[in-house]
Amino acid sequence: MPDYGHTCMIRGDGGKTLRAILDQICNKWTLLIVATLEQGTLRFTDLRQQIPGISQRMLTLTLRNLERDGLVSRSVFAEVPPRVEYALTPTGQSLIPPALALAGWAIEHVPQIEASRARWADR
Question: Where do the DSSP E strands lie in the chain?
Fold first, then answer.
């Protein structure tokens, strides 16, 4: 039987805790929001303009989840009209290197993956 000790971190509690975190991090919009906020603090409207295709509702929901998980901070300024700004927390900043590593892996393997998909489609 192969040694699976190195995957215990992944399999842990049947993967329940890790899956819940990765479901949030790996959803359609999270990494785009995190990468956009890496540039610095942004207001909601500016953030939405920099992420093509995201709806106001999805941006709101994703930002709430990121704030709940401690990856994004939300600052409200008592002005008229009210100003709200979003920024990455240190935890959010720490997501950038692994996200870049995953993106690098994907870019490196695009030709193999596309070839495999083409073979699959020809079956």
Answer: 42-43, 72-77, 83-88
Task: Tell me the pLDDT tens digit for each residue of 5-33.
Answer: 566 666 666 667 778 888 888 888 999 99
Partners of 75 in beta bridges: 85
Q: What are 42-59's pLDDT values in tens digits?
A: 999 999 999 999 999 999
* Predicted TM-score of the model (pTM): 0.80
Query: Is the distance from CB of 44 to CB of 87 less than 8 angstroms?
Result: no
Residue 86 near residue 78, CB atoms below 8 Å: no
Q: For residue 114, give every residue at least 6 positions away whose Cβ sits within 8 Å of its Cβ, in sequence order, or none.
A: none
The CB-side HSE value for 54 (13 A sphere, CA atoms) comes to 25
Cα 77-72-79 angle, rounded to 5 deg: 5
Residue 38: name the closest of 100, 102, 87 by CA: 87
